[in-house]
Amino acid sequence: MFIDHLLAAQADPVAAYAMTTGRMWSLIAAGLGLAGVAAGGLALARSTGHLRRRATPGTGTGTGTGTGTVAGTVAGTVAATGKRGAVVALVAGVTSIVIGGWVIGAAKGGPGTGYGIVGGYLDLILGLAAVVLGVLVLNRARRPA
Questions:
Q1: CB contact at 8 A, 36 and 88
Q2: Helices 70-106 and 21-48 meet at what angle, rounded to 10?
């Protein structure tokens, strides 16, 4: 079967620190999940106004009104970055969930057998957290100010 070939069933006992293909896929998905959580967390912080980018000098008009001001520039940057971060969090989270579920489904043993099942469960948790953060940011961006 296709999945068995990718996870390469081990006939020999696996050392505790050996990098098997199941562990490798779990590690890749965990990295994606962490990236999604980080992107979603930053986007949520920006959308709530707790984290703002510093405006570059010379971008404001100096009058304090209108969209050409530094405050207007920062607000537009926050809105655009928040949506982009939310999409990154959603894509990375769903990818982490899919790979984690695939690793769990293909595992033929429990923890310590080298199939990466513990990492697969971690991938599901990180992916779900990234998806939740992405949805929160998108809902916040859709809400009128």
A1: yes
A2: 160
Q: Report the C-alpha gap between 141 and 48 in whole angstroms.
A: 10
Is pTM beyond 0.85? Reply is no
Q: Are 70 and 59 in contact (CB under 8 A)?
A: yes
Closest CA to 86 of 45, 115, 122: 45
Tell me the HSE value of 73 on the side-chain side, using a 13 A CA sphere.
14
CA distance 90 to 92: 6
Tokens read off for 65: 């009104």
> What's the pLDDT tens digit per position in 18-27?
888 888 999 9
Amino acid letter, 119: G
Encoded amino acid at 101, one letter: G
- Please state the separation of Cα 47 from the chain's center in Å: 17
Helix axes 117-142, 21-48, angle to 10 degrees: 20
